[in-house]
Amino acid sequence: MNPTILDGKATSLEVKERLKKRVEKLPKAPTLSIVYVGNDPASAVYTRNKVKTSKEIGIDATLHRFEKISEEALIDFIEHALETDDGIIVQLPLPNGMDEEKILDTIKPEQDVDGLHWKNIGKRILGDKDAFWPCTPLGIIEILDRYKIEIEGKHAVVIGRSNLVGKPIASLLEKRNATVTQCHSRSKPISRYTLDADIIITAIGITKFLKADMIKEGVIIVDVGINRDENGKLCGDVDFKNVKDKCSYITPVPGGVGPMTVVELMFNTVLSAEKKLNH
Predict the structure, then answer these.
(1) Which residues contact 127 (CB under 8 A, 6 or more apart)?
(2) Closest Cα to residue 34, out of 20, 22, 23, 48?
(3) SS3 of 176, please?
(4) Is residue 62 part of a domain?
(5) Catalytic member of 85, 86, 91, 198
(6) Torsion angle (degrees, nearest 10) of CA 152, 153, 155, 156
(7) What CATH number has the domain bearing residue 39?
(8) Can 91 be counted among the known catalytic residues?
(9) How many domains, the chain?
(10) In whole angstroms, what separates CA 112 from the centre of its chain?
(11) Which of 73, 216, 229, 274 is found 20 to 30 A from 197 (Cα to Cα)?
């Protein structure tokens, strides 16, 4: 089988162009604050990329960098210094010893463009259309839609149950009338579920976890994993080389979901600015 490669980079460029037009219609540029604590090298790359993408779209993004700050001081900063911004994100992971949930819940739900505040999580469960969704799941749906992949009636298997990816993408697929199976470390053997899947979303962070003997012919695979192989090369959760020829569609790593995650953050920020204008 000759698979179609789901191109996240090209899809993200299309979304960027749409967002630029929406920003031009606003009376002022949307504002986004990115809070980065510590010195994690991967976080440094991600935050720079978010600032760069913001500028390309016309969003006024500010990076607030703290090598060291107490939890109390960080909470105070988020509550008082950033209260007028359209969007706020705290770059994860935070340094050891910081209460991630407590800090994320300091962000007002209407500024929570990462979709991680407990109120946004609750609103999504209740079907509230005003709730923000996390960026990676939004990006996955955008890619599937760009390639006109039918979700309704399909059996979708989600491997992973994080609040950032696994749980929300399962909810979004369910909203689109897929039959969803959510797998995790205790779902053994996982192949029992993946062999029956029409769509597989894998987000577990294990290098080349999904093998060719775990899938059926014609499956659609979205790989959210960002890992390094034995040679230090970037790869996903899927054994891409050996799996791709059994797929009808598959995302590469890099160049698949990654570019979409950043652009969907911009989507949420623009949406927040539009909501503020309409209230």
Answers:
(1) none
(2) 48
(3) coil
(4) yes
(5) 91
(6) 10
(7) 3.40.50.10860
(8) yes
(9) 2
(10) 14
(11) 229
Q: How many CB atoms lie within 10 A of CB 46?
A: 18
How buried is 263 (Cβ within 10 angstroms: 0-12 exposed, 13-18 middle, 19+ buried)? buried
- Give the Cβ contact number of residue 201 at 10 Å: 30
Other Cβ atoms closer than 10 A to 58: 17
Percent helix, percent strand, percent coil in the chain, to nearest 5: 40, 20, 40
Residue 232 is part of a domain; what is its CATH number?
3.40.50.720
Residue 277 lies in a domain: no
Per-residue pLDDT tens digits of the chain, which is 279 residues long = 799 999 999 999 999 999 999 999 999 999 999 999 999 888 998 999 999 999 999 999 999 999 999 999 999 999 998 989 999 999 999 999 999 999 999 999 999 999 999 999 999 999 998 999 999 999 999 999 999 999 999 999 999 999 999 999 999 999 999 999 999 989 999 999 999 999 999 999 999 999 999 999 999 999 999 999 889 899 999 999 999 999 999 999 999 999 999 999 999 999 999 999 887
Catalytic residue among 86, 112, 114, 237: 114
Catalytic choice (50, 167, 208, 244): 50
57 is in which domain, residue-wise? 28-108
Q: Give catalytic status of residue 112 as yes or no.
A: no
Q: Decide if 182 is catalytic.
A: no
Length in residues, the chain: 279
Q: What are the tokens at 80?
A: 């008082």
CA 165 from chain center: how many Å?
Answer: 6
Give me the DSSP letters along 201-220: EE-S--TT-B-GGGS-TTEE
